[in-house]
Design goal:
The protein is an alpha+beta fold. The chain folds into two domains: 2-36, no CATH class; 39-85. It has three helices and three strands; from the N terminus they run H-E-E-E-H-H. The protein has a three-stranded antiparallel β-sheet. The radius of gyration is 24 Å and the shape is elongated. 0% of the residues are buried.
Amino acid sequence: MKEDKITELTIFESPDGGQTIYKRKAGTSHRELYLRDPALDQKLKDIKNEERWMAIYEARKTNVALDDLCRKVEGLYVLSKPNDAL
């Protein structure tokens, strides 16, 4: 009977100090995501977005239309900044 109680035990683990929490049953190595800090989710989305923009910037070297659009976006960016921020 004691063995049944031990295998029913749920273990919660966090490899990153509490930003991500996984749960698993005692005696198993399979774990499931239990909770992730929303700020971490946003940070991961931001990183993916930055990687996408870096890929676009690299692709413009061989894509004339993309290069043209990137130049326009860069111009818009410069024009939208206050004069003291340039």
